[in-house]
Recover the amino acids of this structure.
């Protein structure tokens, strides 16, 4: 717990995070009363890890973790032994952070605020030399009043990139274009923008293979286990950023062929009774729709049972209540958990769609409902930015128990 006694013996410096640390916290109050040296986690990172390094930052509403993981793996594959700090666990590394052995450092650059005393986005501290801007939508309703407030923070990030650096931006995102139009002093390469930038051509319907083109020239073909147009875009951005660090596109393309993905990004958690259960971090309607569409293209006409927990602050406040239902359109059946603190009608938001839906306030009850509905050949996609009460493992246990009962 938090208490003043934790500050004995006297620390040289106190790092204050942004997860629930606010005035009134007894340990924080002691730090202030005793005049201890303190700073935020993002500022500590900038001073003691990132200073003097070639920082490659990945920012955006969606895809930061996956794209940063791709970029770190490309640099590793090319022998550059980068450091990295990623908000997930890349399959190729099995860890989310390391210091690295060279000046290159890949960081997932989050727009959430820094601490109770520094309301700027964490990424303004990182001072990248190479910056990926994946996309920009409204999110984090608990700290940003509107989209313009987020655009302002993104523009502060843009202002920190040197003229000798590079910004790799999604050319199909109008909000990013508007942000860059406010002022940009750094060369920009755009992906998903014909014909001058980075493009994917001759992609398979599920996104598991695509040709990489830059300024009209075909540079090679990526064949990998990932799904979806969103991951194709992520891959293009990572290739472009790696090129700025000195990795030729052919090597980056080869690296992506052995990219092992990221935990909780359409991760297969198990199979039971012929039913595959996936775990995915998607919690914003855009990410939910993209993940479902990618899986749909892979499994074809097989049934997809989507399981959703609207857990984020933005979801709980109802910002996405009108877009959540349509975002699940690629599913055949939807199961939703109503978490405590949800202030809007989840049943109404899911009503009138092409799929039938079930809403429950109890995880165990939801597991029973899914297990009763699922049949061999189905794909159960569980989407939440939290642990979802262990639903994945509970569901697999229920499916295995049901299968064993049938076998007897």
């Amino acid at each position: 717990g938090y208490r003043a006694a934790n500050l004995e013996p006297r620390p040289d410096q106190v790092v204050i995070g942004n997860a629930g640390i606010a005035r009134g916290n007894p340990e924080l109050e002691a730090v202030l009363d005793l005049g201890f040296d303190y700073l935020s986690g993002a500022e500590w990172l900038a001073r003691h890890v990132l200073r003097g390094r070639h920082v490659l930052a990945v920012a955006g509403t969606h895809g930061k973790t996956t794209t940063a993981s791709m970029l770190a793996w490309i640099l590793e594959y090319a022998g550059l032994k980068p450091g990295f700090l990623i908000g997930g666990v890349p399959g190729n590394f099995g860890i989310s952070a390391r210091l690295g052995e060279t000046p290159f450092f890949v960081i997932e650059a989050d727009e959430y605020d820094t601490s109770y005393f520094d309301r700027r986005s964490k990424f303004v501290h990182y001072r990248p030399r190479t910056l990926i801007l994946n996309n920009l939508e409204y999110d984090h309703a608990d700290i940003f009043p509107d989209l313009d407030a987020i655009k302002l923070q993104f523009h502060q990030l843009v202002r920190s990139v040197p003229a000798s650096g590079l910004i790799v931006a999604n050319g199909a995102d109008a909000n990013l274009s508007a942000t860059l139009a406010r002022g940009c002093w750094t060369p920009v390469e755009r992906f998903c923008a014909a014909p001058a930038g980075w493009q994917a051509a001759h992609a398979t319907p599920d996104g598991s293979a695509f040709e990489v083109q830059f300024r009209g020239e075909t540079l090679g073909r990526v064949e990998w286990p990932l799904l979806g147009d969103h991951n194709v875009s992520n891959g293009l951005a990572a290739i472009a950023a790696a090129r700025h660090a000195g990795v030729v596109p052919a090597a980056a393309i080869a690296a992506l062929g052995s990219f092992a993905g990221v935990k909780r990004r359409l991760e297969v958690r198990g199979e039971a009774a012929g039913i595959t259960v996936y775990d995915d971090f998607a919690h914003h309607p855009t990410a939910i729709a993209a993940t479902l569409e990618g899986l749909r293209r892979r499994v074809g006409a097989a049934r997809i049972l989507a399981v959703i927990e609207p857990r984020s602050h933005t979801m709980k406040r109802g910002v996405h209540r009108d877009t959540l239902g349509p975002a699940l359109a690629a599913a055949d059946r939807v199961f939703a958990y109503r978490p405590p603190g949800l202030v809007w009608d989840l049943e109404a938001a899911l009503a009138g769609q092409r799929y039938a839906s079930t809403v429950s306030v109890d995880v165990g009850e939801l597991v029973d409902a899914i297990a009763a509905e699922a049949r061999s050949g189905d794909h159960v996609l569980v989407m939440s930015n939290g642990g979802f009460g262990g639903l994945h493992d509970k569901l697999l246990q229920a499916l295995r128990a049901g299968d064993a009962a049938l076998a007897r």
Observations:
- Residues 246 and 366 are 50 Å apart (CA to CA).
- The chain has a mean pLDDT of 93.
